[in-house]
Amino acid sequence: MANKQIILDGAVVSITDFNLTAPLIIDIKQDFPFIKIHFQLGGKMDYQPTNQNEKAIVIEEGQYNFFYLPKIDGILTLHPVVRSTVEIECGEDFVRKIFKNDFHKISGSFGIALREKIPFKMWEQSESIPKVLKSSIENIIKNSQKKEVDLVYWESEMIKIFQYMFSKINDKEEINSLVYLSGIEQEQITRVETILHKKIQTSITVEELALEVGINRNKLNRNFKHIYGEPIFQYLTRIRMEKAKEILSKKGVNISEVAYEVGYKNPQHFTVAFKKYFGYIPSKLK
């Protein structure tokens, strides 16, 4: 049913987009472990285990979840609508391989679930897909249409997504705490995001941003992460790297020009940052 599948060493990325005119109910059984990051862009999926003590997985349109099931035995219902998903399925070896010796330090409760062979679900109720992951999903869908599979790109994209998941697992207390933002506070954070995009070529500090929109520095950091799912300068690095990648895909540009366009005066510093973010040097795109 997948429109496109990208086969990696130990993982499969599936992109689906099809019209479902009636509910599709599937009785599924699987005796081996199942690790999945599921983005539901359109439609709804509902997995109900036969054993009520196991974890049910329900993901509505615009939501995502990350889960591990030691085995599968239950009913999967796909509800009728235009169904669109991006799904990343992998084995334990794949996750351990990309994080190597750091796996135990950063995997949190997910790593414990693997070790104890107990079900794990990142969100008890699936969460809305944050902006930082929407960008990755858009890139995944676009790159899935290419004739040749760039394994370096796909592995770097998987690392970024799993890093995000693990950071959220280890940040559960902050995620679960309720942060109420007034209309003025939401407008301030939206203005900060606009400023970051406009000043992508220039250096700017959190203090300058806070002063420009009239907000306390600590509150700015907290509220920005609450809305956009990542710290301010992690967000800025991401939009700089995505912009750099977009420019590099065009002909007739050199690394120095690209570095300047995204706010790096030193091309070597840009190359280091680009490689750290994508897993390969910018010249590979050229």
From TrEMBL:
InterPro entries documented for this protein: Homeodomain-like_sf, HTH_AraC, PchR_regulatory_protein, Tscrpt_reg_AraC-type_HTH
UniProt-recorded name of the protein: AraC family transcriptional regulator
One annotated GO molecular function: DNA-binding transcription factor activity
Domain of life: Bacteria
PROSITE patterns: HTH_ARAC_FAMILY_2 (PS01124)
Pfam families: HTH_18
UniProt domain HTH araC/xylS-type: residue ranges: 190-286
Keywords, in A-Z order: DNA-binding, Transcription, Transcription regulation
